[in-house]
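A.,

Following up on our hallway conversation. Structure tokens first:
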């Protein structure tokens, strides 16, 4: 089908807001939501909750293999959690630093690179739990989730202070 409109002209009719202000506000609002989740399943609290819940999942599961392998796949390939989301946010922080020059954003970018690796480790541990049903991987995953929760909370708190 042919289009009746082969081109459009877009004209700016008002002054655009300061991008640095918008970036700082977006980071601040996101950080505030992360630190004050509406339910315990979100933000750093959700990560910490998961650290304890996976032990219950493991004990009560009728199919540890498929449930933990599926969780690992969903975490990294089909959802917004794990390293998938943190990769996006890491890259956003780098671009935000480049646009604003706020050095704390570069620091947070560097910290998110580490958070990404920890989430990949979690996904790998979930796969190992599914493959082996060995509780040593479950314990390591739980400990790593607690570590992630604490470290991400610290990073996000730094972002709040940098952008308020």
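Then the amino acids I'd put at each of the 164 positions:
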């Amino acid at each position: 089908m042919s289009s009746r409109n082969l081109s459009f002209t877009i004209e700016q009719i008002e002054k655009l807001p300061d991008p640095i202000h918008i970036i700082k506000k977006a980071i601040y609002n996101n950080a505030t939501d992360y630190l004050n989740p509406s339910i315990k399943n979100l933000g750093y609290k959700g990560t910490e909750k998961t650290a304890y819940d996976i032990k219950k999942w493991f004990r009560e599961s009728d199919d540890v293999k498929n449930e933990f392998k599926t969780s690992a796949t969903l975490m990294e390939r089909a959802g917004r959690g794990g390293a998938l989301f943190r990769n996006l946010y890491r890259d956003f922080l780098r671009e935000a630093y480049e646009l604003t020059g706020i050095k704390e954003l570069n620091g947070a970018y560097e910290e998110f690179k580490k958070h990404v690796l920890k989430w990949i480790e979690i996904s790998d541990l979930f796969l190992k739990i599914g493959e082996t049903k060995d509780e040593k991987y479950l314990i390591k995953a739980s400990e790593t989730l607690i570590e992630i929760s604490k470290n991400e909370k610290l990073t996000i708190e730094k972002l709040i202070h940098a952008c308020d």
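Helices lie at 19-35, 43-60, 64-77, 82-100, 103-132, 135-163. Curious whether your intuition agrees with the design.

B.
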